[in-house]
Design brief:
Shape: globular
Structural class: mainly alpha
Oligomer: single chain
CATH architecture of the largest domain: Up-down Bundle
CATH class of the largest domain: Mainly Alpha
Number of helices: 15
Distance between the termini: 54 Å
Number of strands: 2
Strand content: under 5%
Largest sheet: 2 strands, antiparallel
CATH topology of the largest domain: Cytochrome Bc1 Complex, Chain C
Length: 378
């Protein structure tokens, strides 16, 4: 009787829809990646010195001289990529199934804040090795704040700690890169608590608490463990066989302020934002486009409120087009800024901003025609 009571109580607190697929596992994968990043980051912290003279050498000494240092370094570097893979899939799954709608608006907004903090933390971590691509990527990104009216140049000088990137800049970025993961961990706890409060969404879009829900343990815990095993297997394969596949080779060259790389690119998980920034000719317009692309995710709960439309086939197709536009922006962001790549980026950007609106519009027209037809037949 006691065991049955505990099971019912657990079901009452943490109801899990029976229709959940493996697409719902990526939130757990992101939590695993966060744990890995915290542990490996703390291990590397003991050997890193935030000064421009020795930062690059410290990383190389850590990789070559410290026992198993190369393993920790490559796990941490590739862990960022795996983290973003898990987060992006987790986010697109939420868009596909309408997880941003009521009653999960607060859950979605906390997730958006986590995405922004993750982007900021990853950018600062990319600068810390002080390689050639790190230095110039930091130069480009920090100068974006110069578009702020009246105070832009002062903000850039404050970020730099002077009139150019230097030791002060690196120390500040290192400090925030060390502290923000703990903020992310705290917000992740809040995110999970909100999830348990409102319950998971499901492919059917049902919000019933008990009729189509079951126990998390043992059914979905086993599914999570299998997914974690497969995810970590792919992670280990990447680290063990292709540790540099997702990293730019120029970052193995010490930073040289006197030599500009032929083609400045960030890490792959920033390429979609970089493509938006680059495909808009005016600097201010590019920064606004980048900001709007991020804010777009935050305001989705108020842009798309009709739950019936979210479950329609037309909307699902529009989300697929939206994801393809995101992938296209990521692909063109790595290309050289020639005419073809810029035109492709601009077309992808238009599709990125309009596909979901068109999907909702055509779904609304379709549903309205069906209702009108049924009324006529009756």
């Amino acid at each position: 009787m006691g065991a049955m009571y505990m099971q019912k109580n657990f079901l009452h607190i943490h109801p899990v829809p029976m229709t959940l697929s493996y697409n719902w596992n990526f939130g757990v994968y992101a939590l695993i990646c966060l744990t890995i990043q915290l542990v490996t980051g703390l291990l590397m912290n003991s050997y890193y010195g935030a000064d421009t003279t020795n930062a690059f050498a410290n990383i190389e000494i850590y990789v070559r001289e410290v026992p198993e240092g190369y393993l920790t370094r490559y796990i941490h570097a590739n862990g960022a990529s795996m983290f973003f893979i898990a987060v992006y899939i987790h986010m697109f799954r939420g868009i596909f199934y309408g997880s941003f709608q009521h009653p999960r608006i607060e859950l979605w907004l906390v997730g958006f804040i986590l995405l922004v903090l993750l982007i900021a933390t990853a950018f600062m971590g990319y600068v810390l090795p002080w390689g050639q691509m790190s230095f110039w990527a930091a130069t480009v990104i920090t100068q974006l704040f110069s578009v702020i009216p009246f105070i832009g140049p002062s903000v850039v000088n404050w970020l730099w700690g002077g009139f150019s990137l230097g030791d002060t800049t690196l120390r500040r970025l290192y400090t925030f890169h060390f502290l923000l993961p703990f903020v992310i961990a705290l917000l992740s706890f809040i995110h999970i608590n909100l999830l348990h409060k409102v319950g998971s969404n499901n492919p059917l879009g049902s919000n019933l608490i008990f009729l189509d829900h079951t126990l998390m343990f043992p059914y979905f815990i086993i599914k999570d463990l299998l997914g974690i095993l497969l995810f970590l297997s792919g992670f280990c394969f990447l680290v063990g066989f292709y540790p540099n596949a997702l990293m730019h080779p120029d970052n193995y060259i010490p930073a040289n302020p006197m030599v500009t790389p032929l083609h400045i690119v960030p890490e792959w998980y920033f390429l979609w934002l970089y493509a938006i920034l680059r495909c808009i000719p005016h600097k201010v317009g590019g920064v606004i486009g980048l900001a709007v692309a991020l804010i777009f995710f935050a305001i989705m709960p108020w842009l798309f409120t009709n739950q019936t439309i979210i479950r329609s086939v037309v909307y699902k197709f529009s989300v697929v087009v939206f994801i393809l536009a995101f992938i296209t922006l990521t692909k063109t962001g790595r290309m050289s800024p020639d005419f073809a790549s810029l035109v492709t980026s601009r077309v992808a950007l238009i599709v990125f901003f309009n596909s979901l609106f068109l999907g909702n519009f055509f779904s609304y027209i379709r549903d309205k025609n069906i209702i009108t037809k049924n009324n006529i037949e009756v």
